[in-house]
# Entry
Amino acid sequence: MLVGVIAACEIGFWVVLAAGLAARYPLRMRRTGAALLLGVPLVDLVLLVATVADLRGGATAGFAHGLAAAYLGYSVAFGHSMVRWADERFAHRFAGGPPPRRKPRYGRARARYEWVEFGKAAVATAIGCALLLVMIALVGDADRTAALTGWTARLGLVLAVWSLWPITHTLWPSRPKDGEASRRPAERARPR
# Structure
């Protein structure tokens, strides 16, 4: 059942976000749009309450409980940048805003961008692991929470793999191919 709640929360995140942006730009209802956008984090709260209620109700922690902690960590760490990403596109399409920012493609700017994204992943991992530890302490029964302990290693592995992108872009920065730099406008580095 908890996997269904996670899926519903992911769908709910995008539905609430789209509704908020649609109200804000095409419908020109700024206050309604702002209120809906403020409701985006409430979707995460629903998942947190459902997970804690399930564990407090005597459930043995399983894959879904660990997935919920990981989802919440990544949602909190990346949620703001996802909202900004969507807002830039809606503003450009419906309100005559500037073109959306693109990630840098080359050199130091790209390496900086990748390190910022890695920093968000590190925050997500820390939040996810903290939630796992809180769930383990909340239940207080090692037999019922054994599955959660393995999730800290999974999150650490994801972070270790993620580190390959900023490291490789730092050690071997990408460069434009011959002639490509003259065809493209200069890109500005703007971390997301």
